[in-house]
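User: Could you write out the 3D structure of this protein bound to zinc ion? I've included everything you need below.
Assistant: Certainly. Input first, then the structure.
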Amino acid sequence: MEASDGSPKRPKPFLKRRKRRTYPPCVACRQSKSFTWTCRRCDTFSMCQTCMDDNLWGMTCNNITWTCPDCGHENSYGNR
Ligand SMILES: [Zn+2]
Ligand SMILES: [Zn+2]
Protein backbone atom coordinates (compact mmCIF):
# COMPACT_ATOMS: atom_id res chain seq x y z
CA MET A 1 0.00 0.00 0.00
CA GLU A 2 1.35 3.39 -0.91
CA ALA A 3 0.29 6.60 0.66
CA SER A 4 0.37 9.54 -1.66
CA ASP A 5 2.28 12.20 0.13
CA GLY A 6 2.56 14.60 -2.74
CA SER A 7 6.10 13.54 -3.44
CA PRO A 8 7.23 14.41 -6.97
CA LYS A 9 8.95 11.07 -7.36
CA ARG A 10 7.84 9.27 -10.46
CA PRO A 11 9.05 6.20 -12.23
CA LYS A 12 11.35 7.03 -15.08
CA PRO A 13 9.63 6.96 -18.45
CA PHE A 14 12.54 5.24 -20.09
CA LEU A 15 13.00 1.60 -19.48
CA LYS A 16 16.38 0.09 -19.71
CA ARG A 17 16.17 -2.35 -22.52
CA ARG A 18 19.75 -3.45 -22.73
CA LYS A 19 22.75 -2.93 -20.60
CA ARG A 20 25.22 -2.73 -23.40
CA ARG A 21 24.72 -0.24 -26.13
CA THR A 22 24.62 -1.89 -29.49
CA TYR A 23 24.60 0.03 -32.66
CA PRO A 24 22.57 -0.91 -35.69
CA PRO A 25 24.51 -1.30 -38.93
CA CYS A 26 25.29 1.82 -40.89
CA VAL A 27 22.45 2.85 -43.18
CA ALA A 28 24.90 3.87 -45.88
CA CYS A 29 27.45 1.06 -46.11
CA ARG A 30 25.43 -1.60 -44.24
CA GLN A 31 28.39 -2.55 -42.11
CA SER A 32 28.25 -3.10 -38.42
CA LYS A 33 30.75 -0.92 -36.69
CA SER A 34 31.79 -0.62 -33.11
CA PHE A 35 30.36 2.85 -33.14
CA THR A 36 27.80 4.56 -35.29
CA TRP A 37 26.10 7.87 -34.99
CA THR A 38 22.57 7.04 -34.06
CA CYS A 39 19.56 9.33 -34.00
CA ARG A 40 18.42 9.84 -30.47
CA ARG A 41 14.82 10.22 -31.38
CA CYS A 42 14.00 7.51 -33.88
CA ASP A 43 16.96 5.27 -33.03
CA THR A 44 16.75 3.70 -36.46
CA PHE A 45 19.04 5.96 -38.38
CA SER A 46 22.67 5.18 -37.80
CA MET A 47 25.75 6.05 -39.71
CA CYS A 48 29.33 5.02 -39.19
CA GLN A 49 32.10 7.55 -38.82
CA THR A 50 33.41 6.96 -42.30
CA CYS A 51 30.08 7.57 -43.98
CA MET A 52 29.41 10.45 -41.65
CA ASP A 53 32.59 12.08 -42.85
CA ASP A 54 31.45 11.58 -46.43
CA ASN A 55 27.96 12.86 -45.83
CA LEU A 56 28.59 15.45 -43.20
CA TRP A 57 28.10 18.29 -45.64
CA GLY A 58 24.49 17.21 -46.01
CA MET A 59 23.88 16.45 -42.37
CA THR A 60 25.27 19.43 -40.56
CA CYS A 61 25.88 23.05 -41.24
CA ASN A 62 27.80 23.85 -38.10
CA ASN A 63 29.66 20.66 -37.18
CA ILE A 64 27.97 20.78 -33.79
CA THR A 65 24.72 19.10 -34.59
CA TRP A 66 23.63 16.76 -37.34
CA THR A 67 20.10 16.39 -38.52
CA CYS A 68 18.54 12.99 -38.87
CA PRO A 69 17.22 12.64 -42.43
CA ASP A 70 14.57 10.24 -41.21
CA CYS A 71 12.85 12.28 -38.53
CA GLY A 72 14.59 15.64 -38.68
CA HIS A 73 15.83 15.46 -35.11
CA GLU A 74 18.95 17.43 -34.36
CA ASN A 75 21.57 15.29 -32.72
CA SER A 76 24.73 16.61 -31.20
CA TYR A 77 27.87 15.83 -33.11
CA GLY A 78 31.11 15.33 -31.30
CA ASN A 79 29.53 14.02 -28.13
CA ARG A 80 29.08 10.32 -28.05
ZN1 LIG B 1 28.94 3.45 -43.15
ZN1 LIG C 1 15.81 10.26 -36.42
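The CA atoms of residues 64 and 79 lie 9 Å apart.
User: Perfect, thank you.
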